[in-house]
Amino acid sequence: MLIKNFLKIFNTDTGKFLFLIGVFFLPTALPIAGVFLIFALILSFQKNKFLYLKEKINLSILIAIGLIFFSTINNLIYQVPKEIENLSNSLLWLNLFNWIPTLICFIGFQSYLKTKNDRLEFSKYFFAGTIPVIASCLFQLFFDINGPFEILNGLIVWFQKPLNDTGGISGLFSNRNYAGFWLSVSLPFTLYFFKKIFSCKIKSIWGILIILLNIYLIISTNSRNAFLSMISTLIIFFGVKSILLVLILILLLLLFNPILSIINIKITSFLPIIFERFGNMFFINSPRIIIFRTAINFILQRPFFGWGAGVFFLIYTNKENMWNPPFIYFEPQHTHNLLFEIAFNFGIPTAILITSIAIIIFIKAIPFAFSSKYNKETENYNLDKTWLCASLVVLIMHINDMTFYDGKISLLISILFSGLKCVPISKENILVSYSKNSKSL
Questions:
Q1: Beta-carbon count within 10 A of 287 CB
Q2: In Å, what is the CA distance from 353 to each residue of 2, 54, 78, 349, 356?
Q3: Strands 156-158 and 149-151
Q4: Contact 374, 345 (CB under 8 A)
């Protein structure tokens, strides 16, 4: 009763304020962001209660959560894999925190992203919160400032690893792929704000510099997924022709490289390392392909309920599994693919349900982001397209990696898809009100 009365003191504005502060601190101070976001989530559910259950997508998410719990109970009690018989049960339950909070946040944060103005406010706080990420990457790349830097007895850590250890810039993140994800998601928002200030020449110069800096840092992460995500964003914003010109220029340079090498000029030495990393990406014995083949093999062994959350490394390196399928020894912590990861952890039905929800949300938002029928204002059009681009980055990055396991990134993903789900709803409300006003006139 005391808690209920305490919650009545707060209103929607308070919850939204806590949500935005949490978004601002998300990339730099996850524990602080988590506190704000948890209170925002509580206020959201307290205000909306069972209203969320009226929507089929939210009901599907609750079904997915139920399947995850059922799968975990099955793997701990009824059909325990022999490879994890000696594993502490608490580890499997703890690994659920990588999944359940994200799904719950997807439902709860929708109330803070319902309208265009809500999503615009998020964009501003997210953009401002990303500035320290960019600064940390610059310190690492140009000033060789290395960490880790810790505060609150290690509760908050900026890793700032040496470039020789990471293979590309990672900034305050522990991994260059995590940094590549965050910078790639931030690029559409950078382009959006650049377009808003394009009319002012002085500001547009700064906008161009920030965009070029963002692109340069993405390339410098040497993350293939981040590079592909960047290309998709640029194509959506500027069209295929602009990207084709860049690719044709690179191709011509490569063709002329043998001629220029005669005078000791090698164009390839000027190309980023990221281009070299695409060379062995799809060879039959490349690490990713081996992991995918192995994951499929294990998924088919336990197709309905999976093996349990976070045990891929244990199953993969088990001596009885080492040569089936053909095995090259390295130590993957996960399957490097979202669909495979969910299927391995919780079974194929759960994987199909969750990925289908994400794809349906994405597809439903496409016409509202690109059709002038639903977009009466240029700013509105650009913002929806920005949101779609950022969500596309999530889908691309998780075809070939699992950056989801970083807490900052999983929370950001839940927020992005919450907002994307609200794009068609908010547009329909605008159209309905517009038609009613026209009839009354």
A1: 14
A2: 39, 18, 23, 6, 5
A3: antiparallel
A4: no
Token pair 């399957």 is found at 335
Q: Phi first, then psi: what are they for 158, rounded to 5°?
A: -105, 115
CA gap 121, 114 in Å, rounded: 11
The mean pLDDT value for 99-119 works out to 93
Distances (CA, A) of 274 to 270, 395, 438: 11, 20, 54
Q: ω into residue 162 within 30 of 0, thus cis?
A: no
Element (H or E) spanning 73, and its range? Answer: helix 56-73
Q: Please check whether residue 194 is in contact with residue 211, taking contact to mean a CB–CB distance below 8 angstroms.
A: yes
Other Cβ atoms within 10 Å of 39 Cβ, number: 18
pLDDT tens by residue, 237-282: 877 666 666 666 556 555 554 554 454 444 444 455 555 555 555 4
32: tokens are 């602080």
Q: Residue 151 forms beta bridges with which residues?
A: 156
Q: Is the pLDDT of residue 426 over 70?
A: yes
Query: Residue ranges per domain, the chain?
Result: 2-440
Q: Taking a C-beta distance cutoff of 8 angstroms, is the pair 98, 404 a contact?
A: yes
CB atoms within 10 A of CB 199: 8
Q: Which of 37, 115, 51 is nearest to 415 (CA)?
A: 37
